[in-house]
TrEMBL record:
Lineage: Eukaryota, Metazoa, Chordata, Craniata, Vertebrata
The encoding gene: SEPHS2
Biological process terms in GO annotation: selenocysteine biosynthetic process
InterPro entries: PurM-like_C_dom, PurM-like_C_sf, PurM-like_N, PurM-like_N_sf, SPS/SelD
Signal peptide (from-to): none
PANTHER family xref list: SELENIDE, WATER DIKINASE, SELENIDE, WATER DIKINASE 2
Name by which UniProt lists this protein: selenide, water dikinase
Alphabetical keyword list: ATP-binding, Kinase, Nucleotide-binding, Selenium, Transferase
Xref: Pfam families: AIRS (PF00586), AIRS_C (PF02769)
Source organism of the structure: Oreochromis niloticus (Nile tilapia)
GO molecular function, one term: selenide, water dikinase activity
Amino acid sequence: PDRADGTGKAGDQASEFGQQLPGPRLGIGMDSAVIPLRHGGLSLVQTTDFFYPLVEDPYMMGRIACANVLSDLYAMGITECDNMLMLLSVSQKMNEKDRERVMPLMIRGFRDAAEEGGTSVTGGQTVINPWIIVGGVASVVCQPNEFIMPDGAVPGDVLVLTKPLGTRVAVNAYLWIDQPEKWNKIKLVVTKEEVIEAYQEAMFSMATLNRTAAGLMHKYQAHAATDVTGFGLLGHANNLARQQQNEVAFVIHNLPIIAKMAAISKACGNLFNLLQGTSAETSGGLLVCLPREQAAKFCSEMKNLSSGAGGQGAVGGAWIIGIVEKGDRHARIIDKPRIIEVPPRGSQAANQENSSTSPDPSPNVS
């Protein structure tokens, strides 16, 4: 669990016995709980998350919810999940016909994403509530070499992000198309067609599993990682920086953002704060600390694998966004970061970039 949600006291009381067991341990504050088990030097790694719907397609919403839960395991470099549970709240405001149409699609999307991740949904809980809520629990039993503790960053490391930012902006802008008073704020900087493309890109990006990146974390000797979700890029970067054993700071120079979302954020004043790094993301990418000599190779392989799968962004896969330097365990974005406009898959700009003979998978830190 990566939210400070008031469960700390109960967790502290319950951990008294667990503290006697040897092995790596991670509690409240980061993406997943790592709990040493009584037998065989194994650890239980577990996470839970849930939220409200944010796209209009119930099947895709189910996939996004599942990807968001699994992402907490992937942030630990874990590529396998032993079991998932689904948490579902059905709105009491929905009539029976709508429930019978919408909820099975949401469940199917969640299950399909779980199967894509090599796991299955074996149970869960469904309740009636004023709001639709969807989420779940992911659990895996690991040997120590199967996960990467998020505390090993060293000065000289490079920060890499594996999905573009701007999902919240894209989802809101899409809703504003039919709300003239809000659309008028942004119509001078973006067209309706561009907003629809950005919304589609955000939806597919959120539904993409971070499993490929988790596997490459081992191949390229990642030192630490987290996933970028509700606290935004800067919030999660700060959280990760505080977790480090060494006295380091994260400095972010580049912001890969779904095309036109930076312009919308600027036009809306302080509503999103996308360029300040505090705009919420849902099922965002992994923020990974990599050795400098490995970062470009990580980005290149991410691009090749994601393009081949038609998945994680038609143009990109991963971007170098900053550096790790000696410091006081905090993160910051420089005053004028470089904005990397990431064109939505299927757009003319994306097709042009994909056809380039020598794409640059890893923009230089400037």
